[in-house]
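Risk register update: the risk of archive-format incompatibility is retired. Evidence:
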Amino acid sequence: MGYIMELRKKFGSQPLIMVGSCVLVFNESGHLLLQKRSDSYDWGTIGGALELGESLEEAAARELYEEAGLRAKSFKLISMLSGSDMYYKYPHGDEIYNVMAVYEAVDIEGQAMVNDDEGMELKYFKLEEPIENINPVTKLVLEKTGYIKEW
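Archived output:
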């Protein structure tokens, strides 16, 4: 997250607009892959902020590999999300308003494994039942895109 870290050096923890991609990875049973985040200890989607010169789809591909060790043959754009409800405050105090491209990964290659220090664990979840300790932005993304109804 080099670009955002550079902005943080100049602007501190005050709210920033963060543009990024979120990747939904489903297994053959239709279960969603989530990562247990090392910063908040809750379950969130694969994804992150754009780097300078990077497209939203390139960010999705990079984050998928960095966080889960997976590659996708293609990505299907599901939605673009933004607005006041996409606000998030990290446990260490940094504040952001997300502008997020939500992609579904198509034709996954590789074996899911924790591949960086942002995640502690990867696990597939059924979406028909509530996910305990889900990240609030992840829950909102899944609701807004119609993958879940309110639990």
